[in-house]
């Protein structure tokens, strides 16, 4: 990775990522992956030394025995030392994105936090002060949104930093569009 | 300007810009300039050949005698040939942004359209299919928003492309925050 710019001067983009509700255990949701790919292809482009990506995954409380909430993961090796991989659902997710960033050559950090996703994302955005927060969005219609709720709408309204919501492409919509 | 990447592959960012309501005639609004500076500093950065900026200014109907709605402006020289500069309020605005882009070395195009700004912006975004739409935002509180309305909220909700709304920094708020 090039380090031609001091870190204080990079553009820091926070990505809120979550797990898929359809493909089971260790996969990132379709909309999370779409938001990540959009960020790399449309914003970072070839300027990998100009950006740092901050991945945040928020887990609902007591979802599993995960005890390692305050660790920061920035290198693929950081995940290899883990003993109880099967207990740490969120980390599989972060490992995917951190590994992709290292392949591409863009700096990153990743966290897991516990709580209500929409509130924790806004709180972490306030704490970290990213230049941009990118959230995926299933692109549901108004009726489906009432049922499913949307984290992205809440963040667009309440986060203190600029927010962009990336809609899932129609071609990637699963059979039940509330799934992701 | 470097042209190392073919244009089909650049990231196209549409910026909706408007005139200041306080400083009079030819100036861009504080929030328009803030949205532009954010785009340059945080997104384009040093990668000037990777981006193209599309400036759209929407004028209310019959605001003046402007007859040149369908022209496209991409170079500072495009503005020099105009005869009736005083009749073309929106063009001063576009000239400012086009000149800034040429100083920086980033490709751009600029248009004026007539109509209701929020609807025209969404319609043009649908037509142009930018990768990102950037709109300035006065950062008004809920009470002021009811009175003043906000174009950015409408675009975030209705535009078909990703949208980011850039709040005016508190230090730049004029005496009457509804002004811009």
TrEMBL record, chains A, B:
Instruction: Report what the protein is called.
Output: Universal stress protein A-like protein
Name the gene behind this protein: LOC107926543
**SUPFAM superfamilies with a match to the protein in the record:** Adenine nucleotide alpha hydrolases-like (SSF52402)
Q: Which CDD domains does this one have?
A: USP_At3g01520-like
TM region(s), chain numbering: none
The protein's superkingdom reads Eukaryota
UniProt signal peptide = none
Record-annotated UspA domain positions: 29-166
Annotated coiled-coil positions are: none
Drop me one GO molecular function for this one: AMP binding
């Amino acid at each position: 990775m090039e380090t031609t710019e001091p870190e204080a001067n990079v553009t820091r983009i926070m990505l809120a990522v979550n797990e898929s509700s359809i493909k089971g255990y260790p996969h990132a949701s379709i909309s999370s992956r779409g938001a990540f790919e959009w960020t790399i292809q449309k914003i970072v482009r070839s300027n990998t030394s100009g950006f740092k990506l901050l991945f945040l995954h928020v887990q609902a409380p007591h979802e599993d025995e995960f005890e390692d909430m305050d660790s920061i993961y920035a290198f693929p090796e950081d995940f290899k030392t883990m003993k109880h991989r099967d207990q740490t659902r969120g980390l599989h997710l972060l490992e995917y994105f951190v590994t992709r960033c290292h392949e591409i050559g863009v700096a990153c950090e990743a966290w897991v936090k516990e709580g209500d996703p929409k509130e924790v994302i806004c709180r972490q955005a306030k704490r970290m002060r990213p230049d941009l927060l990118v959230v995926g969005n299933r692109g549901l219609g108004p009726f489906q949104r009432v049922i499913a709720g949307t984290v992205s709408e809440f963040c667009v309204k309440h986060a203190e930093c600029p927010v962009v919501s990336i809609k899932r492409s129609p071609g990637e919509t699963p059979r039940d569009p509330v799934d992701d």
